[in-house]
Write a structure and sequence with these properties.
The protein is α/β, with parallel strands linked by helices and about 375 residues long. About 40% of the residues lie in helices and about 25% in strands. It folds into three domains: about 110 residues, Nucleic acid-binding proteins (OB fold (Dihydrolipoamide Acetyltransferase, E2P), Beta Barrel), CATH 2.40.50.140; about 140 residues, Response regulator (Rossmann fold, 3-Layer(aba) Sandwich); about 40 residues, no CATH class. The N and C termini lie far apart (about 175 Å).
């Protein structure tokens, strides 16, 4: 369709729709091209016929919106994510309604870091399925390690950060440093060898430390050999690789992940000043507890001493009371007590007279009263 302009005197003026249409026509003449960039803001909805994302230039702030039919995108089965580097094959076009430049994608291929990320992601899924990253596998760090192993690069800032924090927090700490390759094709095997050497040196905990870097720089710490070596290490391992946003696979296999090397130093040793303060508080608590226990024992002894002083007198009083009670009962049961009430005991010979038929007139009898006895004869 031919784009027509409106003539105003000697001036040709295009409407917005005509201008956009004209630009779109010219863009359609351009050939299909390959464009390299990083994926960002990947957006897709079930109801959308297309998938949208932004393709950014890694070396600058330039970006372009990419549109691709959802069927074609899904058919590639790339499982793309933000941050991956790709090559997009397509042609430029203008969305006339809004005047937005887009790249209509015909095909997408991973490139460089994108391929690396995909390989790391596949390895991650494989090792996770084997249970190497399971939380229950992680072991607690020793409270006071006798020997700390440190795997790091030569003259690396990470080594300096870890050692500075450890020696500042706990000066008596014994640290055995294993300097090795932490970048390049030899790094993974070298770190595995250093881990083995530190385990044989009877370290109680091992720190694997490396500073930040690009994806390629940190790639050895996602190597399958190294990840398996950390997972099977007989002592707890602290991974302090890269910056906080970096997550190599060794972080997932380690017992503890430290976001920075300095934090790793804080994790493996306690603060000596804080530990001494806690010991002082505990000592004071024990001293106060012992004093309170002694005071309670002393009070109990004083109570027992007082009870022992009064115990003989109390025992005598109780014995006297029992004796008086027994004497009262004996007095109440004594025949003399009965005689004192006016009764008498009559005997005929040696036998007590209990019936009138037991004696005859003229028989001599003996009568006993309370204050004595006298003789009598029966009439």
């Amino acid at each position: 369709m031919k784009v027509e302009a409106v003539q105003y005197g000697d001036r040709k003026v295009y409407s917005v729709a005509a201008f956009n249409q004209g630009v779109a026509v010219w863009l359609a003449r351009l050939p299909t091209v390959w464009v390299e960039g990083e994926i960002a803001e990947l957006r897709r909805q079930e109801r959308w016929a297309s998938v949208f994302f932004t393709l950014r230039d890694p070396g600058g702030g330039a970006s372009v919106v990419v549109q691709m039919p959802r069927g074609q995108f899904d058919g590639l089965r790339l499982d793309l994510r933000d941050g991956e580097r790709v090559h997009v094959y397509g042609r430029p076009e203008l969305y006339e309604q809004r005047g937005e430049l887009r790249l209509r994608a015909l095909s997408i291929e991973r490139f460089g870091a994108g391929d690396l990320l995909a390989a790391v992601e596949r390895l991650k899924e494989k090792l996770a399925a084997e249970g190497l990253f399971a939380p229950e596998r992680r072991r607690p760090l020793p409270f006071l390690p006798r020997k700390i192993g440190l795997v790091t690069g030569n003259d690396a800032a990470a080594k300096r950060d870890v050692l500075t924090v450890i020696t500042t927090r706990f000066p008596p700490a014994n640290v055995l440093v294993a300097e090795t390759y932490v970048q390049g094709p030899k790094a993974a095997a070298a770190v595995v060898e250093s881990l083995s050497a530190l385990c044989q040196a009877d370290c109680d905990v091992i720190v694997v430390a490396r500073g930040g870097g690009s994806l390629e720089d940190l790639l050895p710490f996602s190597d399958e050999r190294l990840v398996r070596s950390i997972a099977s290490c007989p002592v707890p391992v602290v991974s302090a690789v890269g910056h906080e946003q970096d997550t190599p696979l060794c972080d997932l296999a380690a017992d503890v992940r430290a976001s920075t090397p300095s934090l790793a130093g804080k994790l493996v040793v306690p603060d000596l000043a804080e530990l001494q303060a806690r010991l002082d508080r505990a000592r004071d608590g024990l001293r106060r507890g012992a004093r309170r226990a002694f005071e309670r024992r002393d009070e109990r002894l004083e109570t027992l001493r007082g009870r022992l002083r009064g115990a003989p007198l109390l025992a005598v009083e109780r014995k006297r009371a029992r004796l008086e009670h027994a004497a009262g009962r004996l007095r109440a049961l004594s025949p003399h007590a009965t005689l004192e009430r006016g009764y008498a005991i009559v005997r005929s010979g040696s036998a007590i007279v209990r019936s009138a038929a037991a004696v005859s007139p003229g028989d001599p009898i003996a009568v006993e009263v309370a204050d004595g006895s006298f003789g009598a004869r029966v009439e």
